[in-house]
Amino acid sequence: MAKLKVPAVLGDGGSTTVEVPGETLAEVLRNHAEEHGEGLRNSVVEDGEIKEFINVYVDGAEVSGLDTAVEDDAQVRIIPAASGGR
Fold this sequence. Notes:
Elements: E1 2-6, E2 16-20, H1 25-36, H2 39-44, E3 45-46, E4 49-50, E5 54-58, E6 61-63, E7 75-80
Parallel strand pairs: 1-7
Antiparallel strand pairs: 1-2, 3-4, 5-6, 5-7
């Protein structure tokens, strides 16, 4: 199963890492939603695409599509864009 790192801002408090099955990023997000609710998936996906200000990495490589292959032992990280400052 892939290890999905959920950042605190998109989760239920602190950041967590959960193991989720799936052969593609879309399947990992769908399976996570079935177990933990739609919150994360709704924060990441819009109209079948990764939202513009969300960065997703599989094993350290940035990905741009939900059809990205995810190996059994992959590390999946979701990082929302940060802004602010002057």
